[in-house]
Amino acid sequence: MSELERSLLRRLRDRDERAFRELVNDHRDRVFNITYRMLGNRHEAEDVAQEVFITVFKTIETFREESKFSTWLYRVTVNHCKNRIKYLARRHDRDRDELDETSQQQNGAVNGAPVRAKHPDKALESAQMEKLLQEAIASLDDDQRAVVILRDVEDLSIEEICEITGLPDGTVKSRLHRARLVLRKKMQRHVE
Amino acid sequence: MTAEAAEAEIDEEIIVTLSDYLDNVLPPDKKAEVAAKIANDAAWKSAHAEMVDARQAIGETLSGLQKARPDVKFTDDVTGTIAKRSAGRFFGRRTFGDRVPFVAILVVALLGLGIIAYIMWSSPTGSLKVDKERTPGAQGSAIIDKP
Q: Which of A8, A10, A11, A15 to mutate to test the interface with B (most CBs of B within 10 A)?
């Protein structure tokens, strides 16, 4: 860790607002890019990125300087993203259940069959490569998503990814490979 | 261990080794060993081809994605949220700026004291004014002479 980084950390621990703004300005683009690629939604990504920096500032005392500050920051980022993914999945399930109940109440008298919410493919058909990729990323489980984003989008080393995710080296490599295979398969299907 | 589980385990081992091979982090002797396996073993050969293809198709595409950037007000929003949640107590700035300027406060205090001292000195009724006619020596002789 550089002396500059140590000095910034000291100032952060002193609750120096200028130091905090420096930290946010230095890392916001990368943190936001991770949250955006993990969540696939700009509004959610900004909200989570904000929470990441707030958590960092509140818990800076717990950072023991055993790893790089950026590694710790990305660990906080990935954990927040995973929590948000779980929360959104629960909310989505709940919303879908509510929608199903409403639809059944509305249509049950007519045909009595459960009606599921339809997801039109129109948007998918007209989507560009980035949107397709983003959707393909969203279909990965959260660990695969984190690994492929940290490696292929953020260009971090396998060692750093192990530190960030807490996964063993072999697991990271195999998850990365399997994530790439899933993405390739999905992309090929859309291209065809 | 079932045959399926054994196969999955081998696959895992191949993936990890090939990943290191493609990342060019293997020592030369191990690298040569892996190259020989790729050339002679069908499982290694197909796994290698698949991995190279997936890396090129996805790895390169993802690394070429445009970087998403947050709103320009992002930093202000974060600091604003912290200030709001802590009712302004989190940062020292709310009262004195980014840091409490102790030196500036000391200089202002000394100046203030100097001004007060000057006013008391120059005022005819000021307690710091020196009245030569009422110096202890002059007064003392007056007291002695009076009776």
A: A15
| pLDDT tens string B35-71 | 999 999 998 999 999 999 999 888 878 887 888 899 9
CA B7 to the chain's CA centroid = 48
A129 contacts in chain B (CB < 8 Å): 61
Nearest in space to B68 (alpha carbons), one of A90, A82, A111, A41? A41
Side chain identity at B26, as an amino acid letter?
L
Encoded amino acid at A169, one letter: D
What number of other Cβ atoms are within 10 A of residue B103's Cβ? 8
Tokens linked to A126:
């007209």
Report the 10 Å Cβ neighbour count for B101.
Answer: 12
| Contact call for residues A68 and A157 (beta carbons, < 8 A) | no
CA gap A91, A37 in Å, rounded: 20
Tell me the one-letter amino acid at B91.
F
Residue A160: count other Cβ atoms within 10 Å of its Cβ: 20
What phi and psi values does residue B84 have, to the nearest 5 degrees? -70, -45
Q: Is the pLDDT of residue A25 over 70?
A: yes
**Ramachandran quadrant class, B99 (left: phi over 0; alpha: psi -120 to 50; beta: rest):** beta
Q: Is B93 an 8 Å CB contact of chain A?
A: yes
A68 touches chain B (CB under 8 A): no
